[in-house]
């Protein structure tokens, strides 16, 4: 963990058109605008060591109006539709976690590894590189960016493809929408991985990475089940009533050993309707096991399984596909709209059930059985797109 004396210095960058920083290309150890931007937005990166940072952006333009959305790293939504009038300037700040795969090497003869086992696609993503990347979207009007190191409470996310930071449009997950619903007093560190199970999250050394950065007072949200239930994956399959519960207990224990607060999240359902317009149960046994364990271990529970069912049934069989990836052909993974709805359900549960975190929730009240329409959300799409479905589909 970085100490106050080890933190890097504050850095400020002028991003107005015509400034030196605007023209400066990104190089290792430097900063600048990444190639590939255009009318819909651009990416700005600054090389930094892993850690947590407060980013303060000054938005506005003397000559025209702006409508700026900001995402960080792999499309984590930080600011959504900040509108500025011509000549107006506003400042907004948010916290960003950045990391690399590196781990502290284990002692001689001890088991472990030197790095998280990331795959080829992850190696190309902004999540695991040695820089902080900001994506400015919509009609971006950006004057400056200030980046300063910070030590703040961290909300760690451990989970699968329905939680992770999906790297490309149109897929999205609730974990990458959650930062936009919280204030700048807490940082979200999303370690979830597409295709992950409770077992693989450990064997890929992702849990080790997460725990290495954890400090007293932090939070660990744990959501698994989609892939753990797959009997066709024999090496990672977990029975809902036995192994699944045992592994969840281990995660809870590891968080508590470090003075952090564990929270269980039940897995969102898949979008399968019956003839009466009700969602079919495919994950109920795992959700029930998590509910029971939360009572036994006296940990908070975010019942996203129940809330997802309410959201999909409220939208109905005709509209619910608009909340899902691949034009609705994907019944498991969401698009920006669906990810926003599920993140809203999580944020609302935080506000109602976790008093210590409730003060950080900034979004308006959300009722799962009355979800807003897609055009009321309208999240600006990122620049990168892919027709490859998330792993574990």
TrEMBL record:
Organism name: Sphingomonas bisphenolicum
UniProt key word Hydrolase: yes
Positions of the SGNH hydrolase-type esterase domain: 159-312
Entry keyword set: Hydrolase
Pfam families in the cross-refs: Lipase_GDSL_2 (PF13472)
CDD domains associated with the record: Rhamnogalacturan_acetylesterase_like
Protein name stated in the entry: Rhamnogalacturonan acetylesterase
Ligase listed as a keyword: no
InterPro entries the UniProt entry points to: Galactose-bd-like_sf, RhgT-like, SGNH_hydro, SGNH_hydro_sf
Protein family membership: Belongs to the 'GDSL' lipolytic enzyme family.
């Amino acid at each position: 963990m970085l100490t106050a004396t080890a933190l890097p210095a504050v850095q400020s960058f002028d991003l107005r058109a015509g400034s030196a920083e605007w023209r400066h290309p990104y190089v290792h150890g430097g900063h600048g605008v990444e190639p590939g931007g255009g009318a819909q937005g651009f990416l700005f990166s600054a090389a930094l060591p892993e850690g947590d940072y407060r980013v303060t952006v000054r938005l506005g333009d003397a000559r025209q109006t702006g409508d700026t959305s900001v995402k960080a790293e792999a499309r984590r939504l930080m600011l959504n539709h900040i509108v500025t009038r011509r000549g107006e300037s506003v400042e907004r700040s948010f916290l960003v976690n950045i990391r690399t795969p590196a781990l502290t090497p284990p002692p001689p003869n001890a088991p472990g590894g030197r790095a998280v086992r990331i795959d080829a696609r992850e190696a190309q993503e902004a999540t695991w590189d040695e820089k902080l990347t900001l994506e400015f979207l919509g009609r971006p009007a950006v004057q400056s960016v200030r980046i300063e190191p910070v030590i703040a409470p961290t909300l760690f996310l451990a989970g699968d493809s329905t939680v992770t930071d999906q790297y490309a449009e149109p897929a999205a997950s609730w974990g990458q929408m959650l930062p936009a619903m919280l204030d700048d007093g807490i940082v979200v560190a999303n370690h979830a991985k597409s295709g992950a199970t409770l077992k693989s999250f450990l064997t890929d050394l992702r849990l080790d990475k997460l725990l290495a950065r954890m400090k007293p007072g932090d939070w660990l949200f744990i959501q698994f089940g989609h892939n753990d239930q797959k009997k066709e994956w024999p090496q990672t399959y977990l029975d809902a009533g036995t192994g699944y519960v045992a592994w969840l207990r281990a995660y809870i224990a590891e968080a508590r050993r470090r003075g952090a607060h564990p929270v269980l999240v039940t897995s969102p359902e898949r979008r399968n309707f019956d003839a009466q317009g009700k969602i079919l149960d495919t994950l109920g046994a795992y959700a029930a096991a998590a509910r029971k364990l939360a009572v036994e271990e006296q940990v908070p529970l975010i019942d996203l399984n129940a809330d997802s069912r309410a959201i999909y049934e409220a939208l109905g069989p005709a509209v619910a596909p608009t909340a899902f990836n691949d034009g609705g052909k994907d019944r498991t993974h969401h698009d920006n709209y669906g990810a926003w709805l599920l993140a809203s359900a999580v944020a609302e549960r935080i506000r109602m059930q976790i008093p210590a975190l409730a003060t950080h929730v900034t979004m308006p009240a959300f009722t799962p059985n009355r979800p807003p329409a897609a055009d009321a959300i309208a999240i600006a799409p990122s620049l990168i797109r892919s027709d490859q479905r998330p792993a574990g589909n």
